[in-house]
């Protein structure tokens, strides 16, 4: 006999833009994000019995996000995600858990004639600041913050050798290589008992994001990397030390390869080993290294 064992639904790809205008200074600040809302609760009959009386329409979810954005601060995203998630659990008694995912898109203020421009911005990269907030009835609010899409590269200071070799292995041991990856780094906060506790922690969220980003970039640049695995572990350790309210840090780092090109076929042109200057960037396949480090 068939049985519904899990169910959730919601609205994805809700695009939101909010502008704050400082009437005294004329300076405007903008925030753009993409929001996903997913609800769980006593909704089984909507699947099994075509009972729509338990369904909060996904269009209602979209409208709710817009209204919450108008009535509440949208920064830091940890707070806004918690506000939206809590609203659904408190407003609809049959909804027991609400998950809100936020992808924050970059708009960096332009510098014009040597001064920050009051209302002009540029997107200076694909990096996003992400948040997942889950409000669960009787359990509180869990929050995971993240950096995603941060593309980094260093042209030396990385090696990979002494790995397992057998009849399937063709990869040469390398003592100096290009290291490039697209950073996906997340940190999970201790569970908040209420929205008020999230509000009290607001000053910590931006500080933690700044610390995680700085640690990631600094460690990536300075570490004489024996492997992506070891470098990412060092990053996790430092973030845990820097942000006491975080209980776990995770990284997912794809290894973006750059291969030497043997040009010896053209008049003995040297372009391998210590003579390598021209490389072929590779799209796939690629290594993918992941870890979670907890207290």
Describe it for me?
The strands form three sheets. The chain has an eight-stranded antiparallel sheet. The chain has a two-stranded antiparallel ribbon with strand order 4-5. The protein is an alpha+beta fold. The radius of gyration is 24 Å and the shape is globular. The chain has helices spanning 44-48, 58-71, 77-91, 195-200, 202-222, 228-242, and strands at residues 9-21, 28-41, 95-105, 108-112, 115-122, 128-136, 140-154, 179-189, 246-255, 258-260, 279-281, 287-294. Helix content is 26%, strand content 37%. A hairpin with a 6-residue loop joins strand 1 and strand 2 (28-41).
Task: Give the low-confidence spans.
Answer: none
Tally of strands:
12
Shape: globular
Share in helix:
25-40%
Q: What's the total helix number?
A: 6
Beta percentage is 35-45%
Structural class: alpha+beta
Biggest beta sheet summary:
8 strands, antiparallel
The average pLDDT value, as a whole number, equals 97
Order of helices and strands: EEHHHEEEEEEHHHEEEE
User: Main sheet: which strands, in order across?
Assistant: 1-2-3-6-7-8-9-12
Distance from N terminus to C terminus (CA atoms, Å) equals: 43 Å
Calculate Rg over CA atoms. 24 Å
